[in-house]
User: Fold these one by one.
Assistant:
Number 1:
Amino acid sequence: MRPLVWFALAFLLVGSGCGPRFSASKGVDEVIPPGTRVAVMPFENLSGRENASEKITDYFIQALHRVKALEMVEIGQTYEQMRRLRIRSSTFLTSEQIDSLANSLQVAYIFAGAVLEYTETDNTYLGKIPQISVNIRVVKCATGKTVWAGVSNARGDQSELLFGLGAVRSREELARLVLDKAVDEIAGLVRE
């Protein structure tokens, strides 16, 4: 009986590291100094789900507030300047739009992203399983270059251990897990 218990515990410990993954890459070896002013642009909604981008943008901003070393512009100010400057897309920013937005908001970096998938699929054993795909990039306003980019294609059953144990059941919970991992990556850029 004891070997079975030890095997189960070992399985749980090894499997507990599984879950939503966030693959990221740096364009250059960028360091964001503490106290840097940044803006989050509303995420593009390419998922076809109503309000998906608003939810993901909100979750991302909430997660980014944990990085106390960054000074964030309020999303309302960003929306206002985007309207004033007639910027409709955060995915296809021109260098002129980046310059205009950076000058009007007085920011050094812009965070932009897109929601590619925000859905649920049926699983015979687990029921509804959420699926989320997002991409995020950090743009340095002075150069207009992407200095960090990340993407996640997450499913709620990625962290399932056994018989549904550990599976994520809601899109909101999965989105928060994915965006927390993205912010952890971004926080690694912030240092002296």
Number 2:
Amino acid sequence: MMDEEVVVIWDTEYTSWEGCNENGWNNEKGEYKEIIQIGAIKLDKQEKEILDKFDKVVRPEINPELSDYIKDLTGITQSQVNDAEQFEEVLKHFIEWSNNLNLYSYANDLGVVQRNLELCNIGLELEESCFKDIREFFRSKGVPVDDWNSGNIAQYFDSSKDLLPQHNAYNDARNMAEAVILAQKQS
């Protein structure tokens, strides 16, 4: 698990409204998990060094107006999404940037990406085997992953660790990268 020297650790943020976690994004009410940000880190695990970053806001198509709830949660503004590229372009940039490395996210965000491909009628084929669930790595280190999330997992290894603010895809990717580095130090 995660034997490669260089990995991509990534996260997404997507449209949401108050109560969506509880009701499961009611599509009948027009609630869809449209990606509004992709954030990622290329991490050299051996050197414990961040090699590169990817941080792009995405313009949603079905619900172009962000809810106050998601703006408050993520800090992403309406003007940022208005000025952003659409999902297909950002995803293409991300895939090119990742350079065929394995892509690790908390709970494997591949499902959200695939749903967005469907929502936007995009026929892009993804190499699904590159998409991995980073929780497997953390489980192998003894972490009860259901008690943690992408934004705070590093505090399992160091409870005093200052982290970047959660619910920002880039910040959560950085926080997960920090957790990987801390886990390796403890091994």
Number 3:
Amino acid sequence: MEQYTDDERVEDLKKWWQENGVSIMVGIALGVAAIFGWRYWVSHRDAQAEQASLAYDAFIEAVEKPDADQARQRGQGLLTDFPNSAYAALATLRLAKLAVDRGDLVTAIQRLQWVIDHAQLDELRDIARLRLARVLFAAGQATEAETLMERVNTASLTAEREELRGDLYLAGNDPAKARTAYAAALAAGGASPLLRIKLDNLAAPTADTVIAAPAPPPPDPPAQSAEPAAVPTPPASEALVTETFVIEAPEAPVAETPVVAAPEAPVAEEAPAPAAPEAPAAAPEETPAEPAPSTSGPPS
């Protein structure tokens, strides 16, 4: 086998380099540029996100103040400077709420539609769809609201979606479907007190919930005359009986008897001298009866 010398190997390497060296250098340069470009883009993205976060904080601070004009200006500036950030979608949702609060439904619809078209997160788009459906429902466009509501698929918004569905059914005079939708919203975790009130108002009547009609009030007693009613005079026999209960019977004379005090019982501890019995009360003197006249003749 023919052996390659060192000079031949060098010549082959030079030839290969002439054919592939340029592409290798270009590939290396592109790799380095890609690495540095990626790092620059990540750094720029982080800086933009930080600036957008600061702008959003300033916007929220302005929203909490009574000056709504300043809040709208800060929100619009956030949309202009950072239109592709999540903070822009959040700020637009708040701007739509401000528009609803002042009764500007047209502006609110435009803001919510912007979020649906430009938000990067599906959850933010569904939130905007649900709120836009509420605004359309308030504006009297129930059909458009129902169509838009059907596109809400986020699981965390199921309770709000079903509650809105119940409102649409109730507005369409279908209380049975409205009750079913409210029950589904409650089962999905709806904790709104208003939701419970809506469901209770549509609950089917039962024997426990039926309230009996109150009994009619008793008739008023006849008015009594101020003059006393005349008392009928009882007959003579009844008057006599009545008088027998009224007339007191004469007291029976009490015979006077001497009162003798009973001697005190002796005490077991010491034997005092027995007390002398009291002398009986003197009996009333009786007048001697006169001797009856003798019927016999004079003594012989």
